[in-house]
Amino acid sequence: MRVAVLGAGSLGSLIAAQLCQVAPVQLLVHAKGEHGAMMVANGLEIQGEVSLQVDRDQALFTLDEVGIPKEVHGTMEAVILTGKASSTEDLARIARTLLRPDGVLVCLSNGLGHAEACGAIVGAHRVLAATTTYAAWRPTPGVVHFAGKGKIVLGRLQTGALREDAQPLIELLKAAKIDVEWTENGPSAVWMKVLLNIAINPIAALCGVKNGALLNPELFSSSLETMLEGARIARQEKAILPDDLELEQMLEHVLKATSENHCSMLQDVRAGRVTEIKYLNRAVVERGERMGIRAPMNQMLGAMIEALTLE
Questions:
Q1: Tell me, what DSSP letter sits at residue 7?
Q2: Which of 130, 154, 209, 237 has its CA 20 to 30 A from that of 114?
Q3: Is the dihedral of CA 2, 95, 202, 131 positive or negative?
Q4: Does residue 201 contact residue 267 with C-beta atoms inside 8 Å?
Q5: Distance CA 160, CA 105 (A)
Q6: 44 near 128, Cβ under 8 Å?
Q7: In a 10 Å sphere around its CB, with 0-12 CB exposed, 13-18 middle and 19+ buried, how is residue 293 labelled?
Q8: Cβ atoms of residues 40 and 18 within 8 Å
Q9: Per-residue pLDDT, 311
Q10: DSSP labels for 16-64?
Q11: d(CA 218, CA 91)
Q12: What mean pLDDT comes out for the span 169-174?
């Protein structure tokens, strides 16, 4: 199976490295900056939960600043988008060039509305909504620390790709020892991941701590309130969610499972990069305003991250 991973930062590199362990896969890994350049030159190293070394000839590593060879255009059976939320539409345009007519696009970008935006570019019938709770961060370019095992959920959008369209990719992910499951309700799955992100990322970023520190009762209370604000808005959008007690238990479970992870927003703040707050807490606030529902915790956290990073 021919698969491309686009926007390969920490998460994308981890997924790519695991896919490289499966013999039938032919993989393209597309990244940018120092991390991408190091992979092109030396391959990829995974540390942490597992130790993996991907030599540079085990995959086609390409650099955004250089481009992708024309020989691989129109050859990919699946493209997985793992880049930052702000780059989703640009990556979707690259995916449109790479995909075969019957290929599928998996959108793992954090936040709301990305799968729908991808559908407008490549065709909604080829898009799968997706979320993940895998945790990873980069100690140095070309090296990824695998900080917490999770799962990938693939889901159908209203007019999106079907289970049978996704089945070859599901089997490939399972062969790569990636925990994957299918849902017929992709939008609800995306909301579930957003609720976790809005509860964890900004607070961990503002405090400068690993995810596990949010298990402190006072920080956990703030995280939970932020999550439940978002849940009230999601339910008004007809998202199917667990009850509040189950959401609380889920938040606690994810914090424990990823306790050693530096979340992506903390990494962005430390590196002086633009964060994904616009697509997370800010997006929740905006959707709430349309329905007359206030979300003061999300409003405050969004404003604080924006002030901290001058966004």
A1: S
A2: 209
A3: negative
A4: no
A5: 10
A6: no
A7: middle
A8: no
A9: 63
A10: HHHHTTSTT-EEEEEE-HHHHHHHHHH-EEEEESS-EEE-TTSSEEEET
A11: 39
A12: 96
